[in-house]
From TrEMBL:
PANTHER family: TRANSCRIPTIONAL REGULATORY PROTEIN. Residues 1-99 form the HTH arsR-type domain. The keyword tRNA-binding does not apply. It comes from the Bacteria. GO terms for molecular function: DNA binding. The keyword Ribonucleoprotein does not apply. Signal peptide: none annotated. This is DNA-binding transcriptional ArsR family regulator.
Length: 109
């Protein structure tokens, strides 16, 4: 998948406030699906939909503890955020160059 396609998937996933809340919760540590639902104030089916979207976007990964395959533990994956950070840095650089050029244009006699 290209960097642009990954960025589109990441931004689409993060467009929802509940999914951003899940990402914030997972920044602290991996968590069980039920724990995420409770912390976010969502029903288990609603959380399941959000987690599916986050998995499909590549932002989170799902694992199962050896002792119980029914338990799902979610953790953040850093790769999609690297693409987002790179895009933000490039965008910031472009705007900085544009503003510098605009300022120079305005200051010309």
């Amino acid at each position: 998948m290209s960097g642009a396609a990954q960025l589109d998937r990441t931004l689409a996933a993060l467009a929802d406030p509940h999914r951003r809340q899940v990402v914030e919760l997972l920044r602290e540590r991996p968590r069980r699906a039920g724990e995420l639902a409770e912390a976010a104030g969502l029903t288990p089916p609603a959380m399941s939909r959000h987690l599916r979207h986050l998995r499909q976007s590549g932002l989170v990964e799902e694992t199962h503890p050896e002792f119980d395959a029914r338990v799902r533990v979610y953790a953040l994956r850093p790769e999609p955020m690297v693409h987002l950070l790179r895009w933000l840095e490039e965008t910031e650089r472009m705007w900085s160059e544009q503003l510098t050029a605009f300022k120079a244009h305005l200051e010309r006699p």
